[in-house]
Design a protein that fits this description.
Layout: H1 2-33, H2 38-49, H3 52-63, H4 67-92, E1 95-96, H5 99-120, E2 124-125, H6 127-150, H7 157-165, H8 168-228, H9 250-297, H10 302-327, H11 331-356, E3 359-360, H12 363-385, E4 389-390, H13 392-412
Antiparallel strand pairs: 1-4, 2-3
Helix pairs in contact: 1-2, 1-3, 1-9, 3-4, 3-9, 3-11, 4-10, 4-11, 4-12, 4-13, 5-11, 5-12, 6-8, 6-11, 9-10, 10-11, 12-13
Subcellular location: Membrane
Pfam families: Na_Ca_ex (PF01699)
Main location: membrane
């Protein structure tokens, strides 16, 4: 029955979203416990964190060779990020923006969208094109972490293109990884030296304690001997030391106890990681399977299911975060999240899905959906440039365009 399929679809979505949240949180904790640098954590977990639902569903669909679901999910998520999420934030409050956000990240988002459209023109995203997407995304992350932070002056889109085509990101990656490896080795050596020093200190203290105990016992024995021999008039000096109920290597016991607690808590984190990973896999599996089922049941192309049910479903968490940020006067964060998510969707997620299996592109995507995505991207950048803020009536325009497009595209399907 369709009702059961709807419940399975929603259950898969809940597992996918909640499992993704727990997976990112647990992975970050484990990485920090093992001394992984903030650079590696940011490069892998944090940057992908908000896009894990899209990534899991796209990879699952790619393994099932459901190209329509993959392409519809990517294009639909990019359109929903602008037409639904950014517009909602603008309706709640005027979004203040910065010039650098437009001239660097905004133009990179637009460039990724144009590159995607060009790659789609032959009705296929090949593995080579997917690899190019991933290479651009890695270069973008390194550009933000290295180039932008090192320079006090503003860094723009043209600087990113120079950075990419001069292969500077390869040198930056090498310069970052090598010190991290050396620092980790040095930290491990220091930890071993500390343990050895603690052990030696404990042994010396134990020997000192034994010597003091021998002196105390010998003094008491001599005093008792004098008393028995009739020398009671002489002052008796008894050297006493504070008895120690615990051995001097108590610190070592603490370290052992802490190590046991550390291992126990680490085991719990690993169990959470496995559970969340299983939730993502199971959730994505049922989510995509039911999406394909509805496509067959309603006799509509998979691309339409991807752009509607899958894209909107995986964007629900970002919508909730956007509403919360806008109410807390942090709407600018929501806009930055929209631009960053669109870049990640196009370059990273589509790139990973395309490496798994080449993605077939339908004429519906080329002639209707992709051009609308480009138009919405251009429109968002235009609205940002008007006073460096996205006003409420501009948010209303984006929302109405999105709703109108969804009605039109479903009718075409």
């Amino acid at each position: 029955m369709p009702v059961i399929n709807i419940l399975i679809f929603l259950g898969g979505l809940v597992l996918l979203v909640k499992g993704s949240d727990l997976f990112v949180l647990t992975s970050s904790r484990i990485a920090r416990r093992f001394g992984v640098s903030e650079f590696v954590i940011g490069l892998t977990l944090v940057s992908v964190g908000t896009s894990v639902p899209e990534l899991a569903s796209s990879l699952t669909a790619s393994f099932q060779q459901a190209s329509g679901i993959v392409m519809g999910n990517i294009l639909g998520s990019n359109i929903a990020n602008i037409g639904l999420i950014a517009s909602t934030a603008a309706l709640l409050t005027n979004i203040k923006t910065e010039e650098v956000m437009l001239r660097r990240d905004g133009y990179i988002m637009l460039f990724a969208s144009v590159l995607l459209f060009l790659f789609m023109l032959d009705f296929e995203i090949s593995r080579l094109e997917a690899l190019i997407f991933i290479l651009f995304y890695l270069a973008y992350l390194l550009f933000l972490l290295d180039k932008v932070k090192r320079h006090e002056e503003e860094i723009y889109f043209k600087d990113f293109m120079i950075y990419f085509f001069k292969f500077e990101y390869l040198f930056d990656l090498k310069s970052r990884i090598k010190p991290q490896v050396q620092e980790r080795g040095k930290r491990n050596r220091n930890s071993e030296d500390t343990k050895k020093g603690t052990l030696k200190t404990g042994k010396r203290a134990q020997k000192k304690h034994e010597s003091e105990s021998e002196i105390e016992m010998r003094t008491k024995y001599e005093s008792e001997s004098k008393i028995e021999m009739g020398t009671k008039n002489e002052p008796i000096t008894e050297l006493r030391t504070k008895s120690k109920t615990e051995p001097e290597y108590y610190d070592i016991d603490i370290d052992v106890t802490e190590e046991k607690l550390y291992k126990a808590s680490l085991l719990i984190e690993f169990l959470k990681l496995i559970a969340s990973g299983a939730a993502i896999i199971i959730g994505a599996k049922y989510f995509v399977e039911q999406a394909v089922f509805f496509a067959l049941l309603l006799e509509v192309p998979e691309t339409l299911i991807g752009i509607s049910l899958v894209a909107v479903g995986t964007s629900v968490p970002e919508l909730m975060v956007t509403i919360s940020a806008a109410r807390s006067d942090y709407a600018g964060i929501a806009l930055g999240n929209v631009i960053g998510s669109n870049i990640a969707n196009t370059l990273l997620i589509l790139g990973c899905a395309g490496l798994v299996h080449p993605i077939m592109v339908t004429s519906l995507s080329i002639y209707y959906i992709a051009p609308f995505m480009l138009m919405m991207s251009f429109l968002l950048i235009l609205f940002i440039r008007t006073g460096w803020r996205v006003k409420q009536f501009e948010g209303l325009i984006l929302l109405l365009l999105y709703l109108s497009f969804m009605v039109l595209i479903l009718r075409l399907g």
